Amino acid sequence: MKKSFNFKAALFLFTLLFSASAAQAQGDASKMYGNAQTTQDFLSQSEHFRSNIDPNFYIYICIGQSNMEGAARPEDQDYQGVSDRFQMMAAVDFPANTGNYRGDERKKFQWYTATPPLCRPFTGLTPADYFGRTMVEKLPDSIRVGVIHVAIGGCKIEHLFKEYDPATVSREAGWFQNFMHSYDDIPYLRVLECALRASHQGVIKGILLHQGCSNTGDQQWPAKVNKIYNDLLNDLHLNAADVPLIAGELLSKEFNGACASMNDIIQTLPKTIKNCRVVSSQGCPGAMDRLHFTAEGYRMIGKRYAEEMLKAMKKK
């Protein structure tokens, strides 16, 4: 996708093509989902992607900043025992055996068994890793779980807005620019594109969020999260009652978390978003930087995300 790509036009075309009935699909059936490698390809071929949707393929969107991105290096145990029922859609290309990634090349927009890292090759363990493992463990064997994972270390909640102006990335620190460039400077559009593709194959069942360090003290944070949540629901034609939002607390005071005060604001999120649950970070060990969890901390909080999601699903 070129930097000059017009977001509003893309969103309009996404919505138009996504809403078209399957009966209007034309062309060779071999023009399937995996052949589109760019946004422009997706827009032009989207009508051909309507394969049979598997109602037993549960898909979850995972977004946020560095703790969702993954700041702890995966350990040997984290590469082992990942069920092929737990899948990840690569939101970027993964060159073979690069960074923390062990394996053959992963191609953007394709599904793979969800061995870490899930975000990008040089990221680490995330809450999504043990969220997915726990989900497939607790759900019937007939259910597969897939995650769409887009996260940017250091991002504010505003960087995830659909109206975010990519031209402003040039004002950010160089390391942050590199993270944003991975998503062509518009993370929301990458989330949307991945989710639209995934929705032709399975059912979007929830959204996972871990963000807040860069917005510590921001009393408007719940309203900003609500905006992103509603934008995704509207653009993906989803109902709030069917798609819970699960948000995680930041590193807690017991581990001297530098942004632990933000947890009081995060706890209020269910007052703004009805179908929302908050995951406690109490007892989840933190790293020396006072911002991130250790690998064990990510395992613990990831399992808690799954427990809250399962409770929300059971209630539904």
The CATH superfamily title of the largest domain? SGNH hydrolase
Which fold name is given in CATH as the topology of the largest domain? Rossmann fold
CATH class of the largest domain: Alpha Beta
Gap between N and C termini, in Å?
A: 38 Å
Defining traits:
316 residues; 7 strands; Rossmann fold; globular; alpha/beta
Quick summary:
The chain has 316 residues and is an alpha/beta fold. 32% of the residues lie in helices and 12% in strands. It is built from ten helices and seven strands.
Structural features, described:
- There is one protein chain.
- Mean pLDDT is 88; it is low at 1-5 and 15-37.
- Helix 4 crosses helix 10 (295-315).
- The chain has a seven-stranded mixed sheet with strand order 3-2-4-1-5-6-7, sandwiched between helices.
- The chain is globular.
- 32% of the residues lie in helices and 12% in strands.
- The chain folds into two domains: 1-51, no CATH class; 53-315, Rossmann fold (3-Layer(aba) Sandwich).
- With 316 residues, it is an alpha/beta fold.
- Strand 5 (203-210), helix 7 and strand 6 form a beta-alpha-beta unit.
- 45% of the residues are buried.
- The chain has ten helices and seven strands.
Annotate the secondary structure layout.
Layout: H1 7-19, H2 39-45, E1 57-64, H3 66-69, E2 86-89, E3 111-113, H4 127-138, E4 144-151, H5 174-181, H6 187-198, E5 203-210, H7 221-235, E6 245-248, H8 263-266, H9 269-272, E7 276-279, H10 295-315
Parallel strand pairs: 1-4, 1-5, 2-4, 5-6, 6-7
Antiparallel strand pairs: 2-3
